[in-house]
Amino acid sequence: MSGSDQAAIEPTLAVSGLKTHFFTKAGVVKAVDGVSLHVNPGEILGLVGESGSGKSITGFSILGLIDAPGRIVEGSIRYKGRELTTSSDEELRSLRGDRIAMIFQDPMMTLNPVLRIDTQMIETVHVHHRVSKAEALERARAALAEVGIPSPESRLKNYPHELSGGMRQRVAIAIAFINKPDLIIADEPTTALDVTIQAQILAEAQALCARTGTAMIWITHDLAVVSSLADRIAVMYAGRIVETGRTADVVSAPRHPYTQGLINSVPSHNVRGSRLNQIPGMTPSLINLPKGCAFRTRCPQAIDACLEPPPIREIGPGREVRCFNPVGVARPATAEAAP
Amino acid sequence: MSAEPLVSARGLSKRFVKKPDLAGRLAGHLGADVREETVHAVDHVDLDIKKGEVVGLVGESGCGKSTLGRMIAGLLSPTEGEVQFKGKPRDKLSGADARAARLAIQMIFQDPYASLNPRARVEAIVGEAPVVHGITTRSAMPAYVDDMMRRVGLDPDLKRRYPHQFSGGQRSRIGIARALAVNPEFLVCDEAIAALDVSIQAQIINLFMDLRTEFDLTYLFISHDLGVVQHITDRVVIMYLGRVVETASTEELFDGPNHPYAQALLAEVPRISTEKRSFHPIKGEIPSPLNPPSGCHFHPRCPRAFGRCRNEVPVLKEIAPGRYSACHLNDG
Q1: Residue A288 forms contact with B (CB below 8 Å)
Q2: Among A71-80, A214-223, B287-296, which is the least confidently predicted range?
Q3: What are the C-alpha distances in Å from B308 to residues A74, B57, B296, B311, B327?
Q4: A198: contact with B, CB 8 A cutoff
């Protein structure tokens, strides 16, 4: 499903102006600072960023999993038109694991080590649905089969430690899909896995979304993974989305200098054996961000206007960039945008 | 194949044996079938690395690539076989020769958080070894450390700091400075960039390439990231369950891998693409090295396996000049 006909269908999730700040002794950490995104049924949105860019906190905020000293200070999160930021804990709890599910990076942290797989899966069904134990067990078996686990009946009787890393992540994905959710937030689910297993998991996830119409937000630092999987990409830097668009557009013609830097630093985009095009400097501390555009100090294209925070601008259908001086756009555009 | 190899592995094997515990031994005395569990982490590996070469060692987790790297670096002693340095078996060396051979091979570790002593200042981390080995004197050490830090792109003013005061990329640089401080000829980099952010990875890869020319270094670059391996290595060695399945020059390998496992591995490298792709992953998972499959270790997952693969271990054969593959299919 493409993102172009977004006007016709109601998005599964629409986040606008989300700000999640952490009030620490050292200062206010603006982990998420004005993020807007949406994802449509059956669509996969890739949320890309480095560590500390706020991509995981965005995911946690959607699920209402932010603990003190963190707090959503502004913005709205609408799930099928329902506002989640003002929902009660009970309402959120009835959604989590049923309508909105999450897959975490480390499956050993999500699975309870002292319970068998079947116990954990049946529990997930019973929390949200009044069905018989036999029915719940059958759903568990079907969910395991769906994610490509061989002989699911016998795997149900296993404890998590008896399974390999790839199998555990499959079980975690099966648990996420078991109640046929409308939205899944996947936070770096393949980072800890080998390439061959990663490819298997990506294949399962892609097929499941297409088959069930589940919308998915795939959070990752790996542009290569997401470029082959996602319909649309949103790139985050220092708590803000700096560029969004259809995957093909973003990857073939990045407009934000940070996105361009990320793509250019990938070895396969460089002549073999040559020096890689590196982004200079390091990711800034969120407590002490540079004034104006947070990427300014590392940016090869920075101009005077960048001392002011750039607004996000639409540069094409469904294509937005937060930059005064975008890559491959003639300079005059920056003059009118500058104050 | 003109020059004599700088470092060679000859029939190198490492087995980790888990002895039965007390309960197991008691059960064994009572007649239960309790045996020692043996993991063949590395199984008769031969490897030659010439001076100035960058060799990539690739495989999935559990294939023995780190164990092989650690044996070559001298951090683990092999169960069988030997490591040769400049043509001489390293275990047979003694005195000054043995020390020189040890110093010449240094290792850079994966985790820049776990591989630096949290209680030591950078100055001590980088400067201790060269003083102990007489490469510099205690009084000249601060200047020596300054020089090393500058070479890896760190500000020498930071040398009184502790590791926790640095970012991941800076810590990587400290680990590299520590290895370089004893004038090595050969670096074993075990997933040295895997823990770093994407934008920092490129910086460290560039540093490795700069240092290679500056110090005339030879690398064994252990990585699961085939994109990086393709970029910086001259030759690639692919391992599966403790055995080498294919060795080839990087260009030839990425042009057309020979071994079915190499083909599958290369097909699954995530690349930045403008189109959604469909995945055709190889089935199954890497089997347990406690109980590896008979014959060719890859046969249960191999799309082209036939009868012989189940019974006979394929040997590594030269299929083109400088190119080796261990697969029965090559016998026609």
Answers
A1: no
A2: B287-296
A3: 66, 27, 9, 5, 10
A4: yes
**CB of B271 less than 8 A from some CB of A:** yes
Alpha helices in B95-197 (DSSP H): 95-104, 122-132, 141-151, 168-180
Residues of A whose CB is below 8 A from B61 = 194
Q: Which residues in chain B are contacts of A283 at CB distance < 8 A?
A: 167, 197, 199
Q: How far is Cα of residue B3 from the mean position of the Cα atoms in its chain?
A: 22
Structure tokens at B97: 């020769």
Give the amino acid at A180. K
Domains of chain A (ranges, CATH numbers): 13-99+182-269 (3.40.50.300), 111-178 (no CATH)
CATH number, span B7-257? 3.40.50.300
**Contact assessment for residue B327 and residue B245, using Cβ atoms and an 8 Å cutoff:** yes
A330 has a pLDDT exceeding 80: no
Q: Return d(Cα A267, Cα A54) in angstroms, integer.
A: 25
Calculate how close chain B gets to A194, using CA atoms only, in Å.
6
Q: Do B272 and A251 touch (CB under 8 A)?
A: yes
Cis before A69? omega within 30: yes
pLDDT digits (tens, 9 = 90+) for A117-160: 999 999 999 999 999 999 999 999 999 988 878 888 888 999 99
Residues in B closer than 8 angstroms to A276, CB to CB, are 202, 205-206, 231
How high does pLDDT run on average in chain B?
88
- Could you tell me if B273 lies within 8 Å of chain A, comparing CB atoms? yes
Mutation for testing the B interface, residue in A198, A258, A276, A297 having most B CBs under 10 Å: A276
- The mean pLDDT value for B197-202 works out to 82
Q: Using CB atoms within 10 A of its CB, is residue B219 exposed (0-12), middle (13-18) or buried (19+)?
A: buried
Contacting residues of B for A275, CB less than 8 Å apart? 206, 209-210
Q: Cα–Cα distance between B294 and B282 in angstroms, integer? A: 19
Q: Is B278 on the interface with A (CB under 8 A)?
A: yes
Query: In this predicted model, what pLDDT tens digit does every residue of B290-326 receive, in sequence order?
Result: 788 889 999 998 888 898 999 999 999 999 998 999 9
Tell me whether A88 touches chain B (CB under 8 Å). no
- Asked whether the beta carbons of residue B202 and residue A227 sit closer than 8 angstroms, the reply is no
Residue ranges per structural domain of chain B: 7-257
Sequence-distant (≥ 6) Cβ neighbours of residue A195 within 8 angstroms: B60, B224, B226, B265, B268, B269, B270
Looking at residue A333, what is its pLDDT? Answer: 43
pLDDT in tens, B98-130: 889 989 999 998 888 888 999 999 999 999 999
Predicted confidence at residue B224, as pLDDT, reads 83
Mean predicted confidence (pLDDT) in A206-223: 90
- A286 neighbourhood in chain B, CB within 8 Å: none
A243 by Cβ neighbours in 10 Å (0-12 / 13-18 / 19+) ranks as buried
pLDDT band at residue A182 under the 50/70/90 scheme:
very high
Contact A227 B273 (CB under 8 A): yes
Q: Does B303 touch chain A (CB under 8 A)?
A: no
